Amino acid sequence: MTSPVYFSKYVVTPQVFFKSQYTYALVNLKPLVPGHVLIVPLRNEVIRLSDLTQEESVDYFKTLQLIQRFITWQFKADSLNIAIQDGPEAGQTIPHLHTHVIPRYRANNIGDKIYDRLDKWSFEGWDERRKEYLKEGGREARKLAKPDDQRFARSADEMGKEALELQQKLAQFSSSR
């Protein structure tokens, strides 16, 4: 039996579609677009990028590069946003380092409004610093292609199914390289 995988205090094992020695990739609870996934270190004490050990850092960025190539291939993306919000004032919503990998396309591109979406994504229970940051206005709100109130959390079954599909596709992708 494998150990449970945590994203901060949340068990996310069924959402994980890739795991290396120090890092994992999981499907997002409330993706901004299809293919929006997260890269996360296995060690929960890693809150900020600078908390990674040298070995973890190498593994983290190798995983990020693999998943970047995979998401581009799987979702036929023209580009990607690869975003780390390093601390609550930078928009980090969970006190555990994570990198957003978000497919982007020439058609229907919302440009930098993607950062507003990231900024508005929230998880209850984060630090008072995040609350203070948002109380002070955060980033200026702009009209979004799809407002946050029109995005809904997915069920564990939906995320588990997507994680299994991505795990299978990643194996296919890796064997074709």
Automatic annotation (TrEMBL):
The gene is TDEL0E03010. Cleaves A-5'-PPP-5'A to yield AMP and ADP. Can cleave all dinucleoside polyphosphates, provided the phosphate chain contains at least 3 phosphates and that 1 of the 2 bases composing the nucleotide is a purine. Is most effective on dinucleoside triphosphates. Negatively regulates intracellular dinucleoside polyphosphate levels, which elevate following heat shock. The record marks 115 as: Important for induction of apoptosis. It catalyses: P(1),P(3)-bis(5'-adenosyl) triphosphate + H2O = AMP + ADP + 2 H(+). Its EC number is 3.6.1.29. InterPro entries: Bis(5'-adenosyl)-TPase_reg, FHIT, Histidine_triad_CS, HIT-like, HIT-like_sf. Keywords: Hydrolase, Nucleotide-binding. Substrate binds at residues 28, 85, 100. A motif (Histidine triad motif) lies at residues 96-100. The lineage of its organism: Eukaryota, Fungi, Dikarya, Ascomycota, Saccharomycotina. It is an enzyme of class 3 (hydrolase). This is Bis(5'-adenosyl)-triphosphatase. One of its GO terms (biological process) is diadenosine triphosphate catabolic process. One of its GO terms (molecular function) is bis(5'-adenosyl)-triphosphatase activity. It comes from Torulaspora delbrueckii (Yeast). It comes from the Eukaryota. The active site is at 98 (tele-amp-histidine intermediate).
